[in-house]
Amino acid sequence: MRLNPVILLLFAFANSSYAQLAPKARLTNDVLRLNWEDTGKGYQIKQLSVKGQNGWHSLSGTLGQYTLLYSADQPRMDSETKDKNGKEIQFPEPEYRYIIPTWKANTSAVSLNKEGLAILFYPQQYKQVGNTLVFQQKTDVSTVKAIWKLDPVYKNDLCVSIHLTADRDGYYSVATPALSTNDKKSFEWGCIPGVFQGSTINNNFTDAYAYGHGIPDRPVVVRERTAAALTAMLTNRDRITLAVTAEPGTARHPWEYDKSTQSNWLLGLSLINRQEQLSPTLYHPVLGQNKSYLKKGESLSFDFRYTINTSNWYQAYQHVVNDVYRFDELLHLKQTKLSLSDRMEQLLDYVKKDNTSRWRTFDYHGRTIGAQEYLGGVYGSEKDAVKNADYGAMWMLANITQDPILVQKRLKDALNFKLAQQNTAGGFFHGAAAGQYYLYNSKRFTEEWGPYTEPIATTYYMLLDMGNVSLFEPDNQQLKSGMRMAADWLLTKMKPEGYWEVAYHNDTQKPMFEDLKDYRPTFYGLLVAYQTLRDRKYLEAAVKAADWYIKNAVDKGYFLGVCGDARFAPDFATGQSAQALLDLFEITKDVRYKQAAIKTAQFYTTSIYSHPIPNKESRKVGPRQLQDWQISQVGLSFEHGGILGSANNSGPIMLASHAGMFVRLFQLTKDSLYLKMARTAALSKDAFVDPVTGVASYYWSAMNKGAGPFPHHAWWQVGWITDYLMAELSLRSQGRIDFPSGFLTPKVGPHKTFGFRQGKIFDKQGDLALMEKLVSLSNPNMDYVCALNKQAKVFYLFVLNNDDEIQESALQFNMSRFIPGHSLDLKTAKCFSESGSKLPFSTGDPIKIAPYGLQVYAFTYK
Hints:
This protein is α+β, with helices and mostly antiparallel strands. It has 3 domains: 27-325, Beta-galactosidase, Chain A, domain 5, CATH 2.70.98; 333-357 and 385-752, Glycosyltransferase; 758-860, Golgi alpha-mannosidase II (Immunoglobulin-like, Sandwich), CATH 2.60.40.1180. The chain is 25% helix and 27% strand. It is built from 18 helices and 44 strands. Strands 7-8-9-10-22-18-17-13-14-15 form a 10-stranded mixed β-sheet. Strands 5, 6, 11, 12, 16, 19, 20 and 21 form an 8-stranded antiparallel β-sheet that branches. An 8-stranded antiparallel β-sheet has the order 33-34-35-37-38-44-41-42. A hairpin with a 2-residue loop joins β34 (759-761) and β35. α5 (340-352) packs antiparallel against α18 (713-732), α11 runs antiparallel to α12 and α13 (573-588) packs antiparallel against α14. The radius of gyration is 29 Å and the shape is globular. The N and C termini lie far apart (87 Å).
């Protein structure tokens, strides 16, 4: 039997241990004041004040109302996708087979908060025990006790523990009490990290719920599996932020012991409660899910905390991530077994071999084109799709290794592929990218998920790829001609306001996905065109488009993704946007772009998992016995999260493209969260690396199964690892060692390419170099980067300690792996600190480096 929601306000039962005559209760410290009054209907919050820099501020709409959900029968989990007028919502279209099950699961009656009996009350009884307040209430289905206290360490935090004992068999869910209610028409910001955010209630349900654009106008309850942090936050119109956060251990663990438990649902998060009030709310357990069924006499508990302060959402988020969930715990626990430098050498071997990298060549109109097999889903394919990923990484690796397979074979065929990928026949699409993928059976290029052309695909697969190759081949006129065609196509398709359509149908040439706006960094392609071709019209257009983007995307917190199979759910393109705006700032020196970049980067931190807290408990992954921290999701980013994204079932991804950018942002802002997130994503992910190839899996759920259907991803791994190491070199040397960076890579994030021009090494110059199996460090906590000053004939070795403890290592060289025809003179060794001061060192001495330190070794060669 399904029960209709009702409100039950019940009177207190006799219990001499609880105060019968005390009309008020209060908790106070230096920064919080919280007062309850017995209104005759129970104890209601009458004052909630917080002290800021300008004195005390009171929250309006104080309430303190409790909510329980109860159902005698199993709650329904079937999808209810109707609008408020009862009309069925047709979303998504039938071809989006990957996301339809996820959408249905997230539009169940439980997800939409329509199930169960809502029991609302103010507690009738209260007593004070030391510095804690204990409230109690008996309903007709349960007895509830709530213990409130101020956190002794974090003065803006209020800790609550609710204990429920069942008086009837059934399903129970406890909601966090509503401290205050807010004006839906006037608030500064609301956010459930990784799911949705914004400054307005969005009445377009699919836009808000599926894409995270603003706050849905319904009391939806979202799962913890894509909430990057287990908190719901609201900053009201008086700029007071209220966050409610589940205590560690409340939510699901994604891998409890020997299999994925990612889809277990123990915690629900919401910004609009069952009473349709704007109030951050958590639910535990979730009605009908694990731990929610109780027999009469059985009990459950829910521990959580409120944070109330006069700062914005990001400061509250930092507190939750850093303090409550101890984000740097993984960096303390990690024990690296495979360095990034060693992975680079394995990846080099992988991409050189046709069989491991699945490299294929084809004749295309008399030209040999080359790419790697793609075994995922592609529109119109017969499992005959091929693709190249990171052109900047390809040219970089070839240049710094001078490997003949890369230089003489891979690059030529890959460049032919790139030139063939452009529409050059004239007409509507002249200059645009013909598609990411080549289908060799039908000998045509196509897009991932339909017969359409996206402007951002031209930014990615024409301008970014061609721009990065041009850094290494500045005299290649074919590339410059292709870039000009691509940039001019973008100019002709840019709207007068400065934005683009999401896509055009290839046959009708009409706009598609008109329910969406192109909240993506499409403008960056014009910036690359300007930097390469030096035609000012491209810069002027990039500025105009970036201004539109800041106003409509960044300021509103609205972003769109670039994965067609997920119908463009927000993804790593948000991180790209931050770096794109930083690059625009570097060129224009307009501080607005730097501010917008930092704001976007703050949003992107909500795509990084911060829970559960890693530990050393045993986990079984196939035949391997591992510790919890080794397979932790903490520090890893989404491909796409939210309601639609792949993170719902597969968890985050191993491509840490954001790591280098986050190091650069720490350098810029001194916000330590960026640095911790960068290092946690980049370091000690051994458990996800295929030991044979050195290729990490893409999705967390695949563990260490390697490239899987995505063999081309190895190039992105080469790219992000290099970008991260170069960012750390610059940071630790305070810019004394710095190599010029190129342009963003397409699609997966903000990492950049290097190695096309000499960099600064203190007061000298040098070219990046990688000589396979030349350098050997015995300690995998240490990484290295090499460079050559060919004029002075000096070989530089930069060694980084990537651990939070002092590390020591033996250093060895395989002299036969040095430049053919040249010899390295180890007796000339000199050692320098990260500041450039000379340190004592003799060949054969062990290397000893401080936590997250850097030392530089210089050797002459003949």
